[in-house]
TrEMBL record:
Belongs to the troponin I family. The keyword Coiled coil applies. GO terms for biological process: cardiac muscle contraction; skeletal muscle contraction. It comes from the Eukaryota. InterPro entries: Troponin (IPR001978), Troponin_I (IPR050875), Troponin_sf (IPR038077). Troponin I is the inhibitory subunit of troponin, the thin filament regulatory complex which confers calcium-sensitivity to striated muscle actomyosin ATPase activity. Residues 8-60 form a coiled coil. It comes from Scopus umbretta. GO terms for cellular component: troponin complex. GO terms for molecular function: actin binding. Signal peptide: none annotated. This is Troponin I, fast skeletal muscle. Transmembrane segments: none annotated.
Length: 168
């Protein structure tokens, strides 16, 4: 809340500074009009001068606005050209090709490739039959097993049962 209060004070001070700067600038640029004591012809001449000045400023404003519109149109056209250029060169979808290691090396090295890479030759063989024989399958009444394993005693029995086969 202190930061918000400080920011509000700074913002208010900034608005006051902008207003005073605007007033100072306008007082420098604009001379005050003294219309009292002038004859009708002098007032008409003054109005003509002011009208000419307004026309000059309006012409400048129109020219600047036309330049700005031209620039924005040019920017839009360039953006469209960039998007068109990006769209013309679409990358084709790549297909997955299965290549063996030997074929890849032959493609990269050409005729220099003489070593065949058999990646499966150095792998260890695992006997699946041994792992299946170690686990005896017990078929029994599951209700007795659930009653026996309920509570903390059951958890201890499970822990002890899991610990004993590996210890022997």
């Amino acid at each position: 809340s202190l930061m918000l209060a400080k920011a509000k004070e700074e913002w208010d001070q900034e608005l006051v500074d902008k207003q005073s700067e605007k007033e100072r600038y306008l007082s420098e640029r604009i001379t005050p009009l003294h219309t009292s004591g002038l004859s009708l012809s002098q007032l008409q001449d003054l109005c003509r001068e002011l009208h000419e000045k307004v026309e000059i400023v309006d012409e400048e404003r129109y020219d600047i606005e036309a330049k700005c519109n031209h620039n924005t149109r040019e920017i839009k056209d360039l953006k469209i050209k960039v998007l068109d250029l990006r769209g013309k060169f679409k990358r084709p979808p790549l297909r997955r090709v299965r290549v063996s290691a030997d074929a890849m090396l032959r493609a990269l090295l050409g005729s220099k490739h003489k070593v065949s890479m058999d990646l499966r030759a150095n792998l260890k063989s695992v006997k699946k039959e041994d792992t299946e024989k170690e686990r005896p399958v017990e078929v029994g009444d599951w209700r007795k097993n659930v009653e026996a394993m309920s509570g903390m005693e059951g958890r201890k029995k499970m822990f002890d049962a899991a610990k004993s086969p590996t210890g022997q």
